[in-house]
Amino acid sequence: MKIREIQDAIMQLKKVHDFCILAHSYQTSDILEVADFTGDSYALSLKAKDMPQKNILLCGVRFMAETVKILSPQKNVYLSNPDAGCPMAEQMDKEFIHEIKRQYPDHTVVAYINTTAQLKTICDVCVTSSSAVQIVSKLNNDKILFIPDCNLGAYVQAQLPMKKIKLLQGGCPIHAAVSANEVAAAKALHPNAKLLVHPECRPEVCEKADYVGSTSGIMQYAKQSTAQEFIIGTEISIAETLQMECLDKQFYPLSQRLICDNMKATTLMDIYHLLNDGKGTAIELDDRTIAKARLCIDRMIELGG
Ligand code: 13P
Ligand code: SF4
Questions:
Q1: pTM (predicted TM-score)
Q2: Residues 57, 18: contact at Cβ < 8 Å?
Q3: Is omega for the bond preceding 52 within 30 degrees of 0, making it cis?
Q4: 211 with 126: CB under 8 angstroms?
Q5: 222: which DSSP letter?
Q6: 170-224: per-residue pLDDT in tens?
Q7: CA of 64 relative to ligand 1 center, distance in Å
Q8: For the CA atoms of the chain, what is the radius of gyration?
Q9: Pocket around ligand 2: residues whose beta carbon is below 6 Å from it?
Q10: Are 254 and 197 in contact (CB under 8 A)?
Q11: Which of 159, 154, 156 lies closest to 170 in space, CA to CA?
């Protein structure tokens, strides 16, 4: 079957089986085209609450599908490729964070949404890359324990010097691998380009950027800017999608190593098979986990709005 035929079949199957598809902006264009909604992790979690369909297929990684399940527990939620996890989300387990909390009992625990549902059950509030600064600024407590991404945490700290943010050694292995030398090389090659980066990059990379923001924030900035060239410091798909959507501008990936294999694990055929064969395994979380994890996601939505 040709790509277009598979896409047409998926559009039909969605209607027949009452599915909606939510796709993270890192997915490839053939997948974005069949989605009902695309966006960054904050936008996807907001949409999770009000999609009318009974079944939701999340194209992205496991913590995103878990977030959808937590917000819509009555729905059947599927992950497009059940093996697609975010390595950062698995970096810290409950026992480890319990121990750290014992050491910092007066700190508010802020969890990046890239964490497991289990870990969220012992945190106070979630944040995403697009909402972290705003949410932390609204917290009554100035003492913050920020997990697991020390780069995003350091970025929030730089924006909010009045807060005292305790960081742990965690983060995204793909974004954290980008070095200041790569920034210098990219800028030397494209001296007129604006540098747009995700806050999961190291502080020395973020400091050099013209804009730091979420995947959707980067796309919005590039589309609205009058500049003609952009170096994109996040997963390579964002530079590719922008290039397809803005033919009059030039987009250069900050590094060719900015590839998230987990985000790339989903194929159009995975979606087709899940809808056609009906053999997907729905996300299962027990009621207690859902109830406790939901508290910090609800708080994120309340403070992030
Ligand atoms: P966004 O919140 O910007 O969508 O980022 C999610 C992510 O996993 C970035 O690597
Ligand atoms: Fe996780 Fe990094 Fe992949 Fe985002 S890019 S899903 S943070 S591993």
A1: 0.95
A2: no
A3: no
A4: no
A5: H
A6: 999 999 999 999 999 999 999 999 999 999 999 999 999 999 999 999 999 999 9
A7: 10
A8: 19
A9: 61, 86-88, 114, 172, 174-175, 200, 235, 260, 262-263
A10: yes
A11: 154
